[in-house]
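User: What would this chain look like folded?
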Amino acid sequence: MTLATKGLYTPTSIAAFEPNDERQALIKRVLNQKILVPDILSLMPAWSSEIQPDVEEINKEIDQWLQTVNVHEQKKAKHRARCNYTLLTAVYYPHCKKDKMLVLAQFLYWIFFWDDEIDNGGELTEDEEGTRLCCRETDRCIDDCLGPNPSYTPPEGLRGTVEMLYPILKGLRAGLGPAATERLRLELHDYVNGVCRQQRVRSADYLPNPWYHFKIRSDDVGAIPSITQNEYAMEFELPHHIRYHEAVEAIVQECTKITILLNDVLSLQKEFRVSQLENIVLLFMNTYDLSLQGAVNKVLDLIREHYAICVAAEDRLPWSKTDSKLNADIQEYIRGSQRLATGTAYWSYSCERYFKQTQLNEKREVLLDLSYVD
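Assistant: Here's the prediction, encoded as C-alpha cells.
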C-alpha cells in the first residue's frame, strides 16, 4: 500500500503549531504508550539469515583492538556491552574469511562511534560548527585513504573517531579493486554529508515531512557502503555496467529503504527516549494525525511494498549466458544487499542497543515502551 502525499517538506504543510509546541504535542500524544511490534523478519520470508562462525574469536580480537582506539572508555564500554557489532558483521557477511571479518567489524564500530557523537545524545548533537569540522576531517580521511594518492597517516590533533578510521580504510582498500574503491569513497562522502544534513533537520523549527526524511536517509545512509563491502568480504569486483544495471541498482535501493524503515521501527523506543523525534513512525503520526499503532502499521506496509519491488527486480538481473563466475558474483552481491535488511533486524533482536531482551517474546515480537523509564 502506498501512502498518499509523498511531497517534500514545505513550511505550509505543517499544522499551526509554534515550533516547540509541535514537538511537545507529539511527545504528549506518545508518552507512556506501549506497542507490540511483530517479527519484522517474517516480512521478508524469502531471505534467510546466516552467521559467520568466527564471532567469538573475532570478539576477542575486537576487545584487544578497542584498547588501542582513542575513544572515551565509557563510550567503548557502553557500545561493547549493548551492541555486539561483531555479530552484526557476522550476519552481514556470513561467508567471509576471518581476517576480513575483523576489518569489517572495526568499520562497523567506527560508524556507530562516529554517528553517535553527532546523533541525539552525543557530544556534537547541538554543536553545528563542531559537527562541520568533524565532517570535514572525516571527508579528508576518506580522500586520503581511498583517493588516487593514498596516505594513511592521520594529521595531528584529530578526533579519536576520525583518527581510528585511517587504518580501517587502509585495510579495506587493500582488499578492494579500483572500481569498488571509488564507489566506497563516494558512498562514504554521501554518508558523512548526510549526517551533517540530518543534524540541520533535527535543529530546524519544524519536524520534517516523513517523505523528506525518508528520501534524504535513503540517498546517503551509511548502509550503502556496507553493501559495497561485500566485494571486499567475498573477494570480487562487479563491473561498472553490472553494478549500475537498473535491476541491481533497484535492489540496492530497495534493500536500503527496507533497512531504514525497519530500523526506524526497532529503534523507536531508543530514539524517543533521547528526544529524537525524526523517526518515520513519529513523523507519520505528526503529519497525518495517525495513532501510534496506525503509524507503525503504515511503516510495516511500506516494508512489505519495498520487499515486493525488490523480489520482482530479481527477474531482471543481467545474468551472463557464458560467465559462471560473474553470475556467482552477481548472486553474492544481491544476497549481500538482502542481508543488509535481514542482518540489521536479526542483530537488533539479538543485542540491547534498541531495547532489552526482556521486551522480546518467543515469537520475536517486541513490546516497545515509549516512556522515559529504562
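The beta strands are 33-37, 366-370. If you want, I can go into more detail on any region.
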